[in-house]
């Protein structure tokens, strides 16, 4: 899907015609720069829609077919020079406008550990990611329209099939509940904050996301260590 240029107004009153299936779903790939401890590169952006995953064994002379490089197509490919703004503008900024027009939208990052999901979604104060930019745009539009829009926000983590409220981590693990008809699934006890504030002290995009991200990462690292130790122990036993 070729991403369209967002409309100029954040609160279009016109209802858009139904979107085609291609328009409703976009799959983007972002290649992060190599880090000093990355040994070799095996993933290359060919152009804005294609990547090549290099066959790292292709120089093995015993192999009959010398190269098994694989080429894949995506809606958008972001190379290692892509900025947080590039990624946000192409993948998400239009969704914020759609949400303001009453549509639902979901953006999620998927990839192995260290791939750059947190960087892309949250980023840091100098390079804010998708979640922060989306909130900023949302607050910008609704700031003078409190009678028209109500913004509330929850922030949860699902890790090892356990759910935690990142706005209130002390609340422990939370449960999923569904109504008697199975139509509405909710996380019981998940906190929800309402705000249209752009005040830095209260601004979730400036404050809560970063704080909770650090906390979540520390705890996850701890959990990862714990799991690794357990496996090590088992393999030795
Ligand atoms: N596009 C990028 N440009 C510069 N640095 C990046 C980029 N993407 C990721 N990094 C850096 O790579 C490291 C790993 O990224 P990140 O923590 O976002 O990975 P992750 O996919 O969230 O990993 P995990 O699943 O383990 O939490 C971080 O130090 C991050 O700052």
UniProtKB/TrEMBL annotation:
Q: What is this protein called?
A: Kinesin motor domain-containing protein
Family of the protein in this entry: Belongs to the TRAFAC class myosin-kinesin ATPase superfamily. Kinesin family.
Q: What is the lineage of its organism?
A: Eukaryota, Metazoa, Ecdysozoa, Arthropoda, Hexapoda
- Where is each Kinesin motor domain found? 24-237
Lineage top rank: taxon = Eukaryota
Q: Which organism is it from?
A: Acanthoscelides obtectus (Bean weevil)
Going by the UniProt record, its keywords in alphabetical order are:
ATP-binding, Coiled coil, Cytoplasm, Cytoskeleton, Microtubule, Motor protein, Nucleotide-binding
Residues spanning the signal sequence? none
Question: Residue ranges of region Disordered?
Answer: 1-21
